[in-house]
Amino acid sequence: MKLFNIKYTICVAMAAAMLFSVGCKKDYADPNKASANNVEKTAAGLTGLVTGVHRTYAATRAGSIYNQITTDGFLSNQLSILNQGNTAEYQFFQGGDKVDATNTIVLSFWINSNKVIFDANTVLKNAPSLTDKNYASGLIAYASIFKALALTNLAMFWERLPDTTGVGVPVNFTPNTEGYTRALDVISHAIATVTADTISPAFRGGIPAGIDIVNTLHALKARLSMYTGNYAQALAEANLVNLSARSTFNFDLVTLNPIFETATSTNNVYQPIDSTMGLPPALAPDLADKREPFYIALSATNPRYRLSGFFAGAAGPIPVYLPGEMTLIKAEAYARQASPDLVNAKAELNKIITKQPASDPFGVGAGLPADNTTYTQAQLLDQIYRQRAIELYLSGLRLADSRRFNRPVSERKRNFLPYPFQEHDNNGSTPADPAF
Questions:
Q1: DSSP H/E element including 119
Q2: Where is this region: Disordered (predicted)?
Q3: Which domains does the chain have, with CATH numbers?
Q4: pLDDT in tens, 331-356
Q5: Which residues neighbour 362 within 8 Å (Cβ) at sequence distance 6 or greater?
Q6: Is the dihedral of CA 187, 193, 196, 198 positive or negative?
Q7: How far apart are CA 302 and CA 107, in angstroms?
Q8: CB neighbour list of residue 91: distance below 8 Å, 6 or more residues apart
């Protein structure tokens, strides 16, 4: 289904001008949009607003999906640059201090994430006032998904993030770990809401197809619980996710898959670095691993390694999360709990290793024999990281994983991004850029 082009949605260039004329006040108001009474106080207006949030997050090179996958792919060594004229991507490929505050992807990612949060907050503020609580439940759940994703992106890629968005309000910066906690609170509230008031079919029929709202809420809560160290909750939430279900950002021939549109179709920006998927030799994929040809196509002409999988087609959907992530969260939760349960952790890990592509709703499967090696906790965590890196290739999660699993710094090109220079220039509270 086409992602609707809502009139209120502001292009990134306009948002940049408006945002950074006032620093981090985050005033995204559009003087051409309908009045607040029409947009922010009615079911139809709020549905249009939250659909616009979806589009802002998912569509085009300016959206969060392109920014997240591209930034993560380069900084965790998954991608190789093809044309150095793509300056922002080339800076990421070089890494280190070559990635500076003038980088246009850094700016776009920052603006896009904060705009998603700002607009989602408008929905979350006004939806509870609707008379139809089942419709309101859908609005709250849907807006919460995008707010949580945006907060998580800020937390994964910046050391500190703004503690609020709004017009004329003071802004402070908090540690990135608080971003995960805030996102977790948003998702937990949404789950409580949909549990109390089932989402109405009328709401589901008014938004783009693809996202399985309830499964996505539990999947994100499992992910965020893992990031915040609540392993029992991560395990419980992962167990609530239907592993046969698909939850996707859908595209069509008008609103294209953003990675295909920019990288795959042009073959002039970036492609996979090689068949190692950017992993060191000890963790590289087995030659017989069926996920390798799923994600990476081989060509007789240069570049030899090419994007495939979720980025092979103009209208190809991109998963919001992969079922395999939930199984690997279970493995990690068992391995990291106070009294590590390495038996169950290994059992969950082997579910990923032995899974056939036909058994996965997206066709992602290694199809390998079970791993019968006896591991220590540290060794097992290395293998869980390895399988996350392969199973979730180019999902935008590896940089955060690399830090979480204490991988060598040499395996990444930066730990965190600098803050956009416009933020530095207009907001005195902006922290100093990280050294790496």
A1: helix 104-126
A2: 416-436
A3: 230-269+283-402 (1.25.40.390)
A4: 999 999 999 999 999 999 999 999 99
A5: 246, 310, 319, 322, 323
A6: negative
A7: 31
A8: 98, 99, 100, 103
